Model the fold of this input.
Amino acid sequence: MVELHFVDSQASSKPIGVFAAFATGFDRVAARPLLIIPPLLLDLLLWLGPHLRTAGIFGWVQDQILARASGLAGEQAAMVRESILSLSERFNLLSSLSTLPFGVPSLMAGRMPVQNPLGQGNPLEVAQPGFAILLWLSLSGLGLAFGAYYQHWIARAIASEAQLGSTWLAAIRMVGFGFVLFIGAIVTATSVGLAFGVASLILPLFGVGVLYLGLIMMFWLAVYLAFTPHGIVRYNLGVVRAMLESIVLVRWNLLSTVGFLLLGFGAYWVMGLIWALPAETSWFSALAVVGHGFVSTTLVAGSYAYYQGRREWLEQARAVRSRPPTA
Done:
């Protein structure tokens, strides 16, 4: 069980800083460039490989939305049709292998390319909704397992002398964590939706406030659970124990953790704009894939350096505080 103790800042040395963690991640990836191979291979698969489409399912969704929103104006209905049509043409079920932020990062999972320098391959249509959902869940679970292996290699690079746990056990636990998040997201979204509907019946402004509070709650929940995979992979913790340890670590390092996450996701987003400049039909996109692999792996490695440094500092501070006073 995770114990909560007051941490005396004078009891131990200064913990690792945000920029120091990112610098450590950069050093480790620069020294071991093979770490970028998993995101590189995944991007090449999504760019040059087969395309699993679900256009028929998107068409059914479009019909259902328009049927239930008969009050839409002509221009609004046209925008809905165009958006769904564009998504149906580009969506690739194989992109489920990239389960950000806990799996293998991918540039092409976000870009969803239809063409590549070799031309446009013959897409494979998945017409049955039940089979598509089953395939999506299976690919997502497989992506989480691959992500555990990927992060295991990174954690070993950050702590080369540490004794890491079993990789396959970490993969199973990562899939379990993904399942917990999936169920939690459904329950949270349903609860917020019901509260929003009830509040809107009373006063529309109340509904907006409830929705706003729900989004804030989901944001902070994501922040407090952000380092759960790190506990699973780096310290061989069970899912619940890793979640609790993540909450404790974020609680005692709240400002620096929020700064670290904002800086990391901000850098990832800005660099993503740069990687999106080459056309999907140009071989220059290969350079973007390599750059994305290096940057994203550096950010993940930096998160492991941050988590390990802050956790060890916290444990050291607890140990110093628990010592009996000297005469």
